Amino acid sequence: MNILTKSIVSNTEMIKKYKNCREKAERYGKIFVLKNNQPDSVLFSINEYEKLSVLIEHLESFEEKDIAKFSELIQKTDI
Which helix (H) or strand (E) holds 5? Predict the structure, then answer.
């Protein structure tokens, strides 16, 4: 996964400048929050979340064997 450095914020920045972080999430689709220089969480824009939620709902309908096949496919294709 490629992460734009512009879409990374510190936990402190998230707390002190939430509005700016929310605007960044809108601009980039999501931002990655670091705590002690380690990935901690992700803030998605509502548009990005809606796209992902459709996919998640679809995946939830899969049986366990189908999920395993899908997971293998992703790992092989490096998506």
Answer: none
pTM: 0.70
Q: For the beta carbon of residue 61, count every other beta carbon within 10 angstroms.
A: 7
Question: Do 56 and 68 lie in a common domain?
Answer: yes
The boundaries of the domain holding residue 73 are 46-79
Do 35 and 61 share a structural domain? no
38 and 3 both lie in a single domain: yes
Beta bridge partners of 41: 33
Per-residue pLDDT of 40-72, as tens digits, reads 999 999 999 999 999 888 888 888 888 788 788
What is the spatial distance between Cα 31 and Cα 9, in angstroms, rounded to a whole number? 7
Domain identity same for 25 and 36: yes
**Residue 45: which residues within 8 A CB-CB, separation 6 or more?**
25, 26, 28, 29, 30
Write out the two tokens for 77: 């294709």
